[in-house]
Prior knowledge:
Elements: H1 26-40, H2 42-50, E1 56-59, E2 62-65, H3 73-91, H4 95-101, H5 107-119, H6 122-137, H7 147-163, H8 170-179, H9 186-195, H10 203-247
Antiparallel strand pairs: 1-2
Helix pairs in contact: 1-2, 2-3, 2-5, 6-7
Amino acid sequence: MTIPSNSSHTENFTKHRAPFFTRTDYSYWKTRMTWYLQSIDLDVWDVIEDDPVFPTKLVDGVMVPKPKQEWNELDRRNFQLNAKVVFTLQCAMDRNEYNRICQCKSVKEIWRLLEITHEGTNQVKDSKINLLVHSYELFFMKENNTIVEMIARFADIVNGLEALGKTYKESEKVMKILRSLPSKWNTKFTSIQEAKDLTKLPMEELLGSLMTYEINLTKTLQKTEDKKKKSITLKATTKEEEEFEEEK
């Protein structure tokens, strides 16, 4: 799959390198970066969610930064976790995006700044969610779409919503897909409803079933079309023969 980019950096799809952010499709990058960081170490992701704990100590009733020479192993571990994620995020940015975050000391501060910059404030996010929910509710399979093409369109909407914090249950997505099918799929819709518990039907199983039906449906339509062509050809041939006999 081609990833749109306005950077000369070529994205390297490898588990050993953080996904590179080219300032396009932030929700896609955010999802991949989230999984990447969690795959490194769950403690790394906790630093983003909970904010890093910088070494401090109580002096005269006030919490102040603890001198480095007084750090214990836990202090060093907490500081290193934050530094590790800050550096990972910096390396995953082009120069313009780096300039935006370079003054941030906390990884949570960086993450929040990126969210506000590319997703907007809560009000902006709510507006984006409303637009995507509207697209979700009106979603249907276009007449010239294949199942794969339809699912790709559906995934774009659902993934966009999930990136903004709006999720649907698996059963809700299954029902939405089924209800989005055109009338020529009614027979298949009914058979699935009768044979399966739709509240427990995995999306992968549904897609496999629909793709198989699509292949058979295409074959049936092709056979019908071939019969029509043969019938037209036969009629034309018969008419020519009749005209020939009349000329005799």
